[in-house]
Specification:
By secondary structure, the protein is mainly α. Helix 1 runs antiparallel to helix 5 and helix 3 packs antiparallel against helix 5. It is built from 5 helices and no strands.
Length: 84
């Protein structure tokens, strides 16, 4: 088992940077798609909110997609680790 296929390392990478967990398990395309959607939904929620919203509120769409990518990367890493 390689060091980056350990699910907890992938989990930490996914929490630090969107898409990094997927890149670590050699699913770069999926990771880049998550990054694209994080940026897209961040911009959409930023444009559709008012300036009196907090940073979290203004980027809620992107943060939501980022939060979805974390368990996805962990689950895929765990399945790959089990398969080897």
């Amino acid at each position: 088992m390689s060091k980056l296929s350990r699910p907890w390392i992938v989990l930490v990478l996914a929490m630090l940077l969107p898409g990094a967990g997927h890149v670590a398990i050699r699913e770069a395309t999926r990771g880049l798609v998550f990054v694209l959607f994080v940026v897209l939904f961040s911009v959409l929620s930023y444009v559709t909110t008012t300036p009196d919203q907090s940073f979290i509120g203004r980027h809620a769409g992107g943060l939501f997609i980022w939060a979805l990518s974390i368990p996805d990367a962990y689950r895929r890493a765990a399945l790959k680790a089990r398969a080897t």
